[in-house]
Amino acid sequence: GNSVTQMEGPVTLSEEAFLTINCTYTATGYPSLFWYVQYPGEGLQLLLKATKADDKGSNKGFEATYRKETTSFHLEKGSVQVSDSAVYFCALRINNAGNMLTFGGGTRLMVKP
Amino acid sequence: DTGVSQDPRHKITKRGQNVTFRCDPISEHNRLYWYRQTLGQGPEFLTYFQNEAQLEKSRLLSDRFSAERPKGSFSTLEIQRTEQGDSAMYLCASTPADRVDQETQYFGPGTRLLVL
To the nearest whole angstrom, how far is the Cα of B56 from the nearest Cα of chain A? Predict the structure, then answer.
């Protein structure tokens, strides 16, 4: 089946630190990959996505590269801010299979001033 | 604001009672999805609709769960004879009809259910 594994949190960083949140997946088909973010008290928001191998998704200073050879889609940001504190979810979608998302368990990021 | 809306935002019920949640997708989005998110976990897919047709329902957690989208606009999710294990956040998402954007699911704020 399809599954997504994320590093467990919480991840606690100081402002301006470098962030990496690891995400690996297993898939029965050829997936598109996503990172969603959930800020406190808010709904899930799409952060970035990549639809084929070697694509790099980016948004708000966050980046993730679709690595087919390592089945990974790690999230990175060069300098985090307090406002980045949230829960981050990695997800996959198998193309032409209903469009439903399979999510990882989420990683809570806490950024301290 | 024309995002996905869900009602109610919070629901407390006693075990054995029936509950119904409503989701209003973004206007003209033809696909609508339901997910469940338990505490500390990622969302788990339940079912989805394309217009009024329910195309996947095998992931509904039990026969106590049912969903409808009678006119292809809003949808309802019903849980009959609730159990304490049903306590969770129930999320709704929709995607636009435009094929290019079909990948992006827009999520509502969720309905948090607590079964006592």
Answer: 8
